[in-house]
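Exercise 7b. Backbone tokens:
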């Protein structure tokens, strides 16, 4: 690899300041990323629904109803917990909302009891409509808050209203797969460049932040392996951290259609207490989607540290770059840390008078421009 260093853009915060000072990096769960579509996979909805329908049609009516009822319970239970978490996070503040929240759990689980076993489409839809009309959405004295909570709850609980019963299964299982997938990987994003204006704006607080330089040799000494030097099938055998260059290409994500159907069969086997086999496909395929992005992001020239275990890692910076808009106090704090770490520190200069916008850095010690 010809690349000698990678860079991390940072906002100026106490957390980021302390991890810099302590020579640490933190690999975030994929579930913490703002863009949930980034680590995407593709499921052929028409094919998977056809496979599930064929399977259910091959079973007795009693077994088919048992399978559908079990999956409805699972889906609605998870949806209810989502609603409770949403209510607690957004509205658990006033006495009115506290009283509402304390009664909400019992009410929603009563909803679960009343509609989980509505096997026929007509009965399910009828019960859903009846319950939707009676949910006590009054959670505050502000109508727009009540409306927002009502919209969220109806979407979560009654997403499949009016849909033939078996068709909700593939959507629900794809959500389960996505949640499992997000919790399986931990990622730390870096860039080849520290001079991209849009990244200084987006990730470094409009030049109020800073950029940390890490040498490739230090990354490798810290236990990271290059993606070309390890096989994916061995990624989960032990604690691994892989450094992978992001590929920018038009893709709809990894195809998980067959895995979705296998996952469905695994749930059925568990329901009927049959032996089941672990399906490692999500692990083997999933890692590839972590370093593929849409070409519109290509200017970021991104690399990613991808790991199968979470937590902080020790990694000493090799240089520090300060945004031009940093206030004096923060600038002095960062320079002091750089001196303590015995690394070079640079301050941003911008030349707005040339035809091409350009970012340059001046070394605080030598007063010379970075080469």
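Sequence design result:
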């Amino acid at each position: 690899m010809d690349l000698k260093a990678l860079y991390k853009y940072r906002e100026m915060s106490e957390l980021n300041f302390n991890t810099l000072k302590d020579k640490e990096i933190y690999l975030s769960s994929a579930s913490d990323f703002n863009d949930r579509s980034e680590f995407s996979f593709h499921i052929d909805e028409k094919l998977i629904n056809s496979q599930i329908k064929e399977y259910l049609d091959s079973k007795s009516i009693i077994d088919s109803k048992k399978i559908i009822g079990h999956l409805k319970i699972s889906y609605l239970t998870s949806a209810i917990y989502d609603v409770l978490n949403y209510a607690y996070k957004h509205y658990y503040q006033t006495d009115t909302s506290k009283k509402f929240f304390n009664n909400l759990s019992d009410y929603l689980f009563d909803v679960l009891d009343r509609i989980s076993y509505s096997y026929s489409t007509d009965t399910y839809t009828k019960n859903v409509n009846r319950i939707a009309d009676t949910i006590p959405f009054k959670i505050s004295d502000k109508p727009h808050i009540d409306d927002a909570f009502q919209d969220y709850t109806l979407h979560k609980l009654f997403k499949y209203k009016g849909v033939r019963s078996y068709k909700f299964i593939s959507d629900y299982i794809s959500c389960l797969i996505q949640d499992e997938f997000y919790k399986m990987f931990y990622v730390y994003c870096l860039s080849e460049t520290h001079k991209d204006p849009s990244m200084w704006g987006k990730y470094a607080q409009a030049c109020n932040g800073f950029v940390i330089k890490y040498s490739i040799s230090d990354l490798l000494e810290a236990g990271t392996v290059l993606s070309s030097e390890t096989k994916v099938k061995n990624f989960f055998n032990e604690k691994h951290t892989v450094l992978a260059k992001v590929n920018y290409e038009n893709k709809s994500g990894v195809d998980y259609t067959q895995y979705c159907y296998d996952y469905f069969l695994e749930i059925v086997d568990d329901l009927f207490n049959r032996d089941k086999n672990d399906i490692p496909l999500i692990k083997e395929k999933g890692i590839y989607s972590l370093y593929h992005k849409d070409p519109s992001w290509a200017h970021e020239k991104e690399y990613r540290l991808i790991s199968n275990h979470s937590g902080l890692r020790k990694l000493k910076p090799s240089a520090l770059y300060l945004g031009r808009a940093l206030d004096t106090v923060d600038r002095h704090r960062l320079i002091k840390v750089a001196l303590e770490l015995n690394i070079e520190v640079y301050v941003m200069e911008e030349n707005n008078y040339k035809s091409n916008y350009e970012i340059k850095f001046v070394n605080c010690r030598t007063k010379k421009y970075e080469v």
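Instructor comment: Residues 228-233 have pLDDT under 50 and may be disordered. The radius of gyration is 26 Å.
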